[in-house]
Amino acid sequence: MAISLSLFAIGILYTDNHSKTILTDKGRALSATDEDAQSRKDDIIKQVIQSANQEKEETRTDRGADQESHQLKQQSALNSDKVGEKDALLTKTNKQTDQSPMPAAWERQLRDRLIKASVYLSLPATKNNRRFTRELRMRIKEVQRVLGDAIKDSDMPKNAYEKWKAMDQLLEKGKQMQYESANEVKKLRAMLHSTEEQLRVHKKQTMSFATMVEKLRAMLHSTEEQLQVHKKQTMFLTQLTAKTLPKGLHCLPLRLTTEYYNLNSSEQQFPNQEILDNPLLHHIALFSDNVLAAAVVVNSTVTNSKHPSKLVFHLVSDRLSYAAMRMWFLVNPPGKATIQVQNIDEFTWLNSSYSPVLKQLHSQSMIDYYFRAHSANSDSNLKYRNPKYLSILNHLRFYLPEIFPKLNKVLFLDDDIVVQKDLTGLWSLDLKGKVNGAVETCRESFHRFDTYLNFSNPLISNNFDPRACGWAYGMNLFDLEEWKRQNITDVYHSWQKLNHDRQLWKLGTLPPGLITLWKRTHPLDRRWHVLGLGYNPNVSQIEIERGAVIHYNGNMKPWLEIGIPKYRKYWAKYVDYVNVYLRECNINP
């Protein structure tokens, strides 16, 4: 009996260990064994085997003792002739005691229960149940007290049977817990298997998704390349359109030039030429070869002026547009304002020996840079190859004191602006010793010095701040007295000579303007000059309507078909489309 119980205990240990080994094979996340637990179980098995061997020895001893006692009794019965009734009664009583309903060999069976209980205390399924282990320990102590010093069944107390039954019930409960633990293992194994299946499915989905992402990336790369090609084509066509005037604007100067040369010399003169140098009047400089654009600037300024009689327009054009410009303002005089139209060829002082920029503009390398896209020195950015940069009209703004030697202040206007408010207040502004009054253009990180200048060149990086705020040309108030006092034209010439190879900045007039007028510019209120109508479709209507001057800077000029439609109305408002010359040249709204 003891051997069978011991083998049962060992079987429990094997079953538990085998279950955990299966879990370990399925995943180390379910492994519940470790070296210490295995060592303890090995000790328990050793104890069980030792107890079984010891009990075998006790069984042999008890059997020998029983045989010896039986022989002595037989001998006593044969030799004794006097057996009284009391002895017979005692013998009968002992036989009844031996045939009691109590099980035989209680002591050995209870000790087997103790071994089995010790095994259950070491198994994880029962060990982790505190209530069970507490009750089991209590039953072990009770059985140990029952056993006491008993060495045979007759020494057992009367309540041994109850203790035995209580221990059996508790051990049966432990056995049930082991079965439940095995079921849990099966459930966990099934869950693990399900999880692994889900992981395999997810892995396949992930691989499929990764393949899809690669395809999308390839498509995106192809789309980006196509977009770049389309962008370059669009830029090329935009630049081409910007450089190509509509037929009507070609027709207009031809018609006006023909009419001008049909006039006699007296009819070709403007009135009020004696006040052109009066410093008390409000002088406006406009340099343009576009008759219609110049007409809008003059008309919008005069229309919105509270004191038009104080306005004096100084218009300078090139030899091709000079006659047409004069003819337009002879037949369309600017109301009470005074106008002067000059030919840039009349400025004999402006020559290559005096102006380094003029020398550069006429050089073969500069012409190649502008017009030969295949040249190694050409820039890939089409906007830098616009012929307007070759026109000296674009650089006249740096020679204002030479053009107007008797004036103190001049308001410079570009020909792509529209005046919407009275500008009288500008002439009373205090520039605080600065040369230039202009609206700054840096909002957030845009239009700062590093946008226009090459800060990898030490000449730039050692003299200027890359985060300095840029400002706009198009509407600028210049103090010519300060200009002359600070030798601004000489500063401009020195920087132009340093940039003969275009390593400090590319082209245009704004970069040299930022350099020349560095720390010499007074910021004006933004409402004086609203920019972006020639490239930005998101300029707010409120900002436009409250602006004193709106500027169509960019390629989308309002007189071109590519102009932004919603902004064209502000410019068209000041075009006299019923004018005979406009109708003859088919220039319509």
- The quaternary state of the protein chains shown equals single chain
The overall pLDDT average reads: 79
Instruction: Classify the helix fraction into a percent range.
Output: 40-55%
Radius of gyration: 56 Å
Number of helices: 21
- Widest β-sheet, arrangement of strands: 3-2-1-4-7-6-8
**Major sheet, described briefly?**
7 strands, mixed
pLDDT < 50 stretches: 1-38, 55-104, 374-379
Inertia-based shape: rod-shaped
SSE string:
HHHHHHHHEHEHEHHHEEEHHEHHHEHEHH
What is the terminal separation in angstroms? 118 Å
Global structural class: alpha/beta
Strand segment tally: 9
Q: Strand portion, in percent?
A: 5-15%
Structure description:
Helix 1 runs parallel beside helix 4, helix 8 packs across helix 10 and helix 17 packs across helix 18. The protein is built from 21 helices and 9 strands. The N terminus is likely disordered. It is α/β, with parallel strands linked by helices and 589 residues long. It is rod-shaped and about 160 Å long. The longest helix has 84 residues. The termini are far apart. It has a 7-stranded mixed sheet. It has a two-stranded antiparallel sheet with strand order 5-9.
